[in-house]
Design goal:
The structure is a homodimer.
Chain A: H1 11-29, E1 34-35, H2 37-41, H3 48-56, E2 68-69, H4 70-81, E3 87-92, H5 96-103, E4 112-119, E5 128-129, E6 132-136, H6 140-147, E7 151-154, H7 158-171, E8 175-178, E9 191-194, H8 197-212
Parallel strand pairs in A: 3-4, 3-7, 4-6, 7-8, 8-9
Antiparallel strand pairs in A: 1-2, 5-6
Helix pairs in contact in A: 1-4, 6-7
Chain lengths: 218, 218
């Protein structure tokens, strides 16, 4: 089951905010000081009214005819997304995907800092990946408690994913970012977010199939 | 701009099909021969009617009271998604994310085979990652044509992403799977699918922030 979290902000809005952030950071780098919703909307296939409504949820305040201060808007979005204070996270799975996530330094900008990695493969335990030691899975629970870790990242195969999630939840993790393709069950009060690469790939390959088959009939 | 491809099948349906596939493959491994929409739906927070409507688009035919043959349904979904025949793809970007994608052997099961990797960093060109040589970017266009490659995967930073996409499109690529967080422009007739890790992370961190702040007010 997907978790049911009461929230006034739609998932669609949450997913558009990082897109605005990238546009804004690009403007900021180029020395632009003020920006309007119309300018932001130009990068997308939706209009300025939706941009304005999305930005309102962050509490950002624009000025009539001038627009938003770029630097302030970046701050407001980051605060709203919880990216202002970096959260420590544990990663489970030291395979290729796990290695990649450990090596992806950009997560820092998105409020995420992977502080430890766990695996149950004796050949991996004790080795180092990007200067982080791979720890045995039975170290997970005591360390979650001692280090007050809230986020667990699951980068194991589909077969092992539910057991890992259960262990994370039992250890006191509050939010799970899952990279395994299998559907997972999570208790109420814990957040489950799926980073579903295979779903994105499904859209791509199906569209490509249709495109290569020629124009679709009405 | 996101590409506008006419399609009778919704993006939501396309994104649910891989989830059904995982449930079905699990049942298949456990020797289950027939399955009903009700059984599949039990794994999700939506009902059997939606499952039935989703499965109908693949052309799969179930029998009253018996349901679908598991093996046949797996085949039908894979064919519909274009995962039955593996497509060769080029990857641009030999950084950490690129390395991870190269190492993620599971893509084979999802119809994707990364056959070559490109980068413009002279220190990377000529090195090997998972037994694939990193090629210079100027080799991209002639190889796309010679090898009839349809899919390009973009695993570069946001700053360089648009230039890479333009090069892929100019070379004749028909579908781009983008891992850069920046919004990209693509001409009509070429598919752009964004695998947006930062968007998924935004949902996670915002929900966690709300959760840690305590119960929300109505």
């Amino acid at each position: 089951m997907e978790p049911k979290i009461l929230s006034a902000v739609s998932r669609s809005t949450l997913k558009r905010l990082p897109l605005y952030l990238h546009v804004l950071e690009d403007l900021h780098r180029r020395g632009v000081v003020y920006v309007s919703c119309t300018t932001i909307a130009r990068k997308f296939d939706f209009g300025p009214i939706l941009v304005r409504k999305d930005l309102e949820v962050t509490g950002a305040a624009g000025k009539a005819k001038i627009g938003f201060r770029v630097a302030g808007l970046i701050d407001d979005i980051k605060k709203f997304l919880g990216w202002h204070n970096v959260q420590d996270a544990f990663l489970v799975g030291a395979g290729n995907l796990g290695k990649a996530l450990l090596g992806y330094q950009d997560f820092d900008s998105y409020g995420l800092n992977i502080v430890a990695v766990f695996d149950n493969d004796p050949r991996k335990i004790g080795t180092r990946i990007f200067n982080k030691e791979v720890l045995a899975l039975d170290k997970l629970a005591p360390l979650v408690k001692r280090m007050h870790i809230n986020i667990g990242i699951v980068a194991v195969s589909s077969e092992g994913a539910q057991a890992v999630v259960d262990a994370l939840v039992a250890a006191g993790i509050r939010a799970v970012w899952n990279f395994a393709p299998a559907p997972l069950e999570i208790p109420e009060g814990v957040i489950l977010e799926n980073a579903r690469l295979t779903q994105s790939l499904a859209v791509l390959t199906n569209k490509l199939k249709s495109l290569l088959a020629g124009p679709e009939k009405e």
